[in-house]
Amino acid sequence: MVVVVAPPNPIRNEKIQAVDLPIIDLSAERFQVRKLIVKACEDYGFFKVINHGVPKDIISTVEEQSLSFFAKPVSEKQRAGPSDPFGYGCKNIGFSGDMGEVEYLIFDTNPISIAQRSKSISNEPTKFSSAVSGYIAAARDLACELLDLIGEGLWVPDTSVFSRLIRGVDSDSVFRLNHYPHLQNKQDFCKDKDTSSSSFSSDISKVGFGEHSDPQILTLLRSNDVGGLQISPQDGVWVPVPSDPTALWVNVGDVLQAMTNGRFVSVRHRALANSSKSRLSMAYFAAPSLNACLSALPEMVTPEKPRLYKPFTWAEYKKTTFSLSLGENRLNLFRISSNDECFMD
Question: Which pathway does the record list (predicted)?
Fold first, then answer.
């Protein structure tokens, strides 16, 4: 079993570094915005967007309702689980034994499914499901706009080549609410079925969600005013991400790295639990349909930059993701080793 923990002090070869991360104002001139997005995706695989258009009232309702749920007694929260993969989960991350100081709710993006699941989550299920579905719709629209801007910025002939993958009703996109209780709370915030984690004392269990990259195309992340997110632009270097509840952070995912033939980087990141304040984040993971066939765009492949990754379907990549521990580099398993070819519709 892999248990995600962190020492009380940074490990010997780990460096914390302050960096001015890219901030992109979506109300600026379009040609400037697309240029800045492409550069941010190349340099960091990560950037902040302001004036993003996701309604503040929807964000506030989702946050308020989510915090009310996570404040409930353990027995009540467990009625919304277990996460299989949707529903409530606690400490367990994925299917390979990874753990962290986090509890969460995971939803597919179907409004009917969300409405049904909300009955075991909220005392006001209609209000909760309406807000979550509204947030997902706004996040999807924003993700599509960002992906279209990326298509324009890369000067590909079909600028909707990325956004088309997530627009359809068969998109495998996911919405996740993560709650990281503060570490001063000595009461166990969930009954972890796997008691092996109890051997780790609270002074070292500071990783809320361990180091990883997101497997999907793009992630939109919003959190409350509590910090904890860090990105790793290079091995052994961690950059703290300042909290800003009015903005959204955008992660490049593995699929987008593969489709740009490595020009964009799927950023590795983690979340640390805060010593005195609880952190709540909401993440929309934009993913294609299961049968979507994914490969580097022809415009991204040149004699000087040959194809790096074998083509794969999202179902194949997702299965690989679930079979590995959280921190493993999944894309390395798809490094090109033959002349297999695959073409998207």
Answer: Hormone biosynthesis; Plant hormone biosynthesis; gibberellin biosynthesis
In order, the DSSP letters of 93-124 are ETTTTEEEEEEEEEEES-HHHHHHHHTTT-SS
**Would you say 247 and 48 are in contact if contact means Cβ atoms under 8 Å apart?**
yes
Whole-number Cα distances in Å, 146 to 46, 88, 164, 246: 12, 30, 12, 18
The average pLDDT across 96-114 equals 91
Fill in the amino acid letter for 273: A
pLDDT in tens, 311-330: 999 999 999 998 998 889 99
99 phi and psi angles, rounded to 5 deg? -140, 160
What is the pTM (predicted TM-score) of this model? 0.90
User: Distance between CA atoms of 38 and 149, rounded to whole angstroms?
Assistant: 9
The residues near 223 (Cβ < 8 Å, ≥ 6 apart) are 229, 243, 245, 279, 280, 281, 282
Q: Is beta strand 23-25 parallel, antiparallel or unpaired with respect to 46-50?
A: parallel
Q: Max alpha carbon distance in the chain (Å)? A: 60
- Please name the fold of domain 15-334: Jelly Rolls (2.60.120)
Which residues are tagged catalytic?
279
Using the predicted structure, report yes or no on whether residue 187 has a pLDDT greater than 90.
no
Q: Is 257 in contact with 251 (CB distance < 8 Å)?
A: no
Half-sphere exposure in the Cβ direction for 340 (13 Å, CA) = 14
